[in-house]
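Weekly structure sync, notes
Attendees: PL (lead), two postdocs, one rotation student
Agenda item 3: pending single-chain targets
PL asked that the sequence for the first pending target be pasted directly into the notes so everyone works from the same version. It is reproduced below exactly as submitted, 114 residues in total.
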Amino acid sequence: MEETTYIRVKEQVLKEIDDKMPPEEELQDLAELFKVFGDGTRLKILYVLLCSEMCVYDIAAVLGMSQSAISHQLRVLKQMDLVKNRRDGKTIFYSLADDHIVTILSQGLDHIEE
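Predicted structure, written out during the meeting:
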């Protein structure tokens, strides 16, 4: 005999969930954002840029990685609007796009250190 599952959530709670749930497209964008934070190399780059604006050459030297690998990861970070760049002559300098990235990193670290 199969049991029927009933939702036992109050109407007010259902409305609150409905009001707070972002549209599907925004949820997908958020999932993509968190995927970017799921890579150790990208996190290292973000922490380097948390301390100072730098060019690819300097980031590669600090992290002991190839410029090619750093450039590839910076491209991903730039596509997700996590880093920005500015040109000074022939050199391109990278920095964090805004304070939201600092908040995400610090809150994430706080969470895992609890």
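Discussion points:
- Residues 99-113 form the longest helix (15 residues).
- The mean pLDDT is 93.
Action: rotation student to compare against the earlier draft before next sync.
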